[in-house]
Amino acid sequence: MTQPNILELAKQGDTQAIAFLMNRHLYPKGITAKVAFKDACLEVILESAQVPNQQILVAFIRKGLTALGAACIERVKVDGQQTGKEFPAWSKEFDLGIVEAQIEAVDNEQSFGNPLLTISINLSGDTARELTNQDFEFIANQIGTDILSSCTDIFIQKVSISNGNSVITKER
Question: Cα separations (Å) of 3 from 21, 72, 140?
Fold first, then answer.
């Protein structure tokens, strides 16, 4: 399945495509998303070795589904549970019919407690050492990959690294 096809299927409410998009971001954090659709309600079960962080993950899912804009999804129910447990440790439901003021409130909510972070780094170096753009790109890609792979408790959505001339950006 190609990227545009997955996105289009997700916008149409395809649960496998929605689960794929969620898991692409969550799986590296040790979290698996299972998705079902019933009576205009998208049901998402988040499972990991530790109880998933409700505040961060509900905000993450709300923002992602709002951006997706799937008209068939009216409500969302998110359950967080530890792997192997029979019942969820927490559950949260919300309406997805969000208007602009509510989107702003979601963004503000994220900025107060364990938000999705954007990291910017400016590399400055000695021009006598002849740091080429290719060297910079290699270093910036390594830094970005290291940051995104090592942060397990925080959802970093974007790492941007610049050297004065070029900018390397990695997004999730």
Answer: 10, 21, 25
